[in-house]
Amino acid sequence: MSMRRMDPLGMMTLRDAIDRLFGEGIFGRSLFPGRMRSLGEEQWVPVNIFELPEGLMIIVPMPGLQANDVELSVAGNVLTLRGRRTPGQEDRDYLVKEWDYGPYGRTVELPFPVDTDHIIATLDNGVLTVNLRKSAAVMPKRIHVRSAEDRSMTGGETHQSPQGLEREKASKSR
Fold this sequence. Notes:
By secondary structure, this protein is an alpha+beta fold.
């Protein structure tokens, strides 16, 4: 199954896009420096997704986080990422403060079912890498083709051409 290109803006609601525009500005700077996120509002986290022959690789930047700060879950074809950035030294008077603290999250619709028993997630140097293996139901299966003489392994009748049936009858009558 080929993976379709995912447009991060296409996955946002109109309200999310407008909030992001006015909250962060076009170039990441806030148009309203005093704007505070409402309590409990999650921050949006960017992701990169790569399709591999055996599944997907998802890469998420998470500077300053520890593995126990991150929660991943898969339900059906949806991967949910949640976490919390804890504040450092909030008693300082910042000249520029572009790194928010608090809850963050991201929900990603996966293009196919994954094997939840074989998900590997690692956090190394502030980068979360999640490897998801395709479910056995969607993995391509190689089918072994046997010769007509190898009937001992079949579980029932063989399907043969009329010429093959005539040869079989002739060999049994000898």
